Amino acid sequence: MAVVVGDSAVFSLRLADIVQAIGGELVGDGQVAVEGLAPLDRAQSRQICFLSNPRYAAALPECQAACVIVAPSMRDAALDRGTTIVVQDPYLYYAKLTQLWRRRFGEWKGDEAVGAGGWIHPSAVVHLHAEVHPSARIGPLCVVERGARVGARSELTSRVSLGYDCIIGERCIVHPGVVIGADGFGFAKDGERWEKIEQLGAVWIGNDVEIGANTCIDRGALSDTVIEDGVKLDNLIQIGHNVRIGRNTAIAGSVAVAGSATIGANCTVGGGSLVSGHLTIADGVHLSGCSCVSKSITKPGVYTGVFPLDEHGDWERNAATLRQLHRLRERIRQLERERQP
Amino acid sequence: MAVVVGDSAVFSLRLADIVQAIGGELVGDGQVAVEGLAPLDRAQSRQICFLSNPRYAAALPECQAACVIVAPSMRDAALDRGTTIVVQDPYLYYAKLTQLWRRRFGEWKGDEAVGAGGWIHPSAVVHLHAEVHPSARIGPLCVVERGARVGARSELTSRVSLGYDCIIGERCIVHPGVVIGADGFGFAKDGERWEKIEQLGAVWIGNDVEIGANTCIDRGALSDTVIEDGVKLDNLIQIGHNVRIGRNTAIAGSVAVAGSATIGANCTVGGGSLVSGHLTIADGVHLSGCSCVSKSITKPGVYTGVFPLDEHGDWERNAATLRQLHRLRERIRQLERERQP
Amino acid sequence: MAVVVGDSAVFSLRLADIVQAIGGELVGDGQVAVEGLAPLDRAQSRQICFLSNPRYAAALPECQAACVIVAPSMRDAALDRGTTIVVQDPYLYYAKLTQLWRRRFGEWKGDEAVGAGGWIHPSAVVHLHAEVHPSARIGPLCVVERGARVGARSELTSRVSLGYDCIIGERCIVHPGVVIGADGFGFAKDGERWEKIEQLGAVWIGNDVEIGANTCIDRGALSDTVIEDGVKLDNLIQIGHNVRIGRNTAIAGSVAVAGSATIGANCTVGGGSLVSGHLTIADGVHLSGCSCVSKSITKPGVYTGVFPLDEHGDWERNAATLRQLHRLRERIRQLERERQP
Q1: Residue A340: its pLDDT value, please?
Q2: In this complex, which of A146, A161, A307 lies closest to C109 when CB atoms are compared?
Q3: Residue C198: which of C186, C188, C213 has the closest Cα?
Q4: Which of A201, B178, C185, C332 is the most buried (most CB within 10 A)?
């Protein structure tokens, strides 16, 4: 289905093939072929797009796409425009369509090994006593140490370090630069010196986990650091030793989770946040970006702790006053005491 | 010009050669040779230094350097001291002098390839269908995937990952550990599970971009992530998918820019800050370190949002009061209502 | 002492051997062998654990461990339970016990080189003019550039970059992905363009320093960036050019220290904090996590600057009020002026 035209190639999928592969109700000509996915407001005549957020519905009539994916509530408006696929959840459908696209054309665009099943790149350094499932893929310049295990269909993309005895489940994706199983940060004071506490645990990662570029997950001190099934970690995240992250929790970039923190299932953590050590966050907690958790959170909900951004002069005045805040409260109390009863 | 003395070598440049190469008015003996650059307060008799910030002018009479670079306003004070180069912008001149120094002596100090034009280190893994300009340099243990392109005189120093279809312009410097083109962080909810949104875009990097160690720039979901000409990124920065960063913007270390944020041209972002996703920052915005942008910024200016640091006890009292701040406001209102008209 | 049982092995140490190796008063049968270390509340009958924090003393009677390590103050309570090792500092003793465990069994669990003295992995790229001590270890896929030096018994674990002319002392541990000696972030403005300031200094690292995964330490602009003896750096830390960090200071993960900052000896810095550039922090300062230092700190003590976390609705009200804080202060002043004298 890839047609080479001069130096480049055109990939195309017929709408009928799309709905056959991933479902949905097509209203329009199934023989129409699309050559790519695009955002609603920028889609061209040979592309397909989706409308998920009703806020963007106003852009629908002007949309140039060959086909728009919409929810049942937008059906009439979409049909007025032209060819449409109607599905319960357009955003989820879009996710599946990107996967279809990658499956069809990834083999051609990616390197020689994609789709070819298991593979260890000759430049990777894999210990003889590591276990790599035959369907797993170890990309260029990875290091897999003794006793490490990589499950079925998991991929270490490139330049990943997987430390000794650390375990990765099935269908995981580990992006470049990730370090799994470096020593946790543990020292005991001996006078002014720090005495190293050897980190004797490992890292245990479940199935369907994705780990972003240059993220680090430290090995446990005694027992293991645990990342449960379905967890998604973005780039440049620090996961300290003996942290446990519950099922399907998603953590955005540049977050730090300190040692022995436990984060529940189905949580989301916004970018740049810090979770202090030795505390517990309940299931279903959503933490805003740039926030700092220093006590356990026992109830689901949305939590925030961000200093509001302001023009520098305004910030300066407010910040200066903030340093006297408890004295201001005293002055209010004093005024309250003095008032006429 | 490198004179080997025992085990080490002395590099020296005559002042006359310096002003011939990069300009400036030399007042003093051009035959004097300098063997290094140093800060004003620590320069020794065979070194050259600069005075840029008038705050440090008081240190000028004591300065031991062979030559001081100053602005016209400091000319008389500098001549009283001794040999001087007078230039419009001493700090810029210093930058050019460091470059001259590196060009002259870098060949000797660096590895075998510096100055030798294009070069791919034998330990790098470069796909047959990647395009590396003959004058570009791919250092040890880099990975360059299929369809990636590296422009003229650009350098991937070492241990850099450049993902498939990602493009780097001319004269770029990419420091060790950088990951360009890992998947953006995109998932659609399917019940409690996350369904992966394949990231079908790439990364486009312009000319004269510098990218610091272990920084990550994710590929776009549909269209590309874009870093415009002249952008400077420090270390450990996270750039999410479909971010666009405008010309000559400089971002300090450990900043996170979430997906689909647009940062204008000629901005500066202080270290450790967070820019939330799907917002726009105008040209000429300067963001203080440790600040969190959660709404678009439409006017140039300096913006800050940092909790002021304090001794822990004082902080604790103020922070506790802060949690009742809106109630304090109510009490002030109440007092205002109650006062005698 | 490793007994292979089927596919796995059992490691065990007799209590008498432990106290012979690292001291302590054993009360109980020295012939008892332990097969591992565990936390007090999870230790099983063939494991050893320690009680350091008196808060956990209530768990002592129920503890199943073969032996508990306690301080003299807990001696009686521990003896009531059973076999005990009494030492001045149980946490420090635990650190030494982990080291003993690693020394005894690491050879068997680790890769072929551990304990075998000096070693350069064949996949590492080490410049002919780098100096690696015969007892140092350079792991897989490291890059060591010209003029770099690695001292006795130091280890670059894997995928570490050590830049030209950078020096690492003795007994250092450098975890995967670390970048030492990338260029500092230095540019001079030339109109709207940034002119690069070549970074002509290097990095100097003392003895007994540990550096966590994916941490970056930039080379100095003119003089060197300096990490003194005994410093411990966690993962994903950014150390800017010409920073100096004093002896035995420990910095937690995801901290950024901007250029030319000086941090004293025996400090601790909590995770996710930012230290701005060109300032000085005294010896013995303890900085809470998620805090931002923007002025020098001249006195030892604990310092904090964190916006307290709250439920999002409460935070929103308080944050909105915070932006009017200096006006609230004016209103309080007004009320004070108006009150009856």
Answers
A1: 65
A2: A146
A3: C186
A4: B178
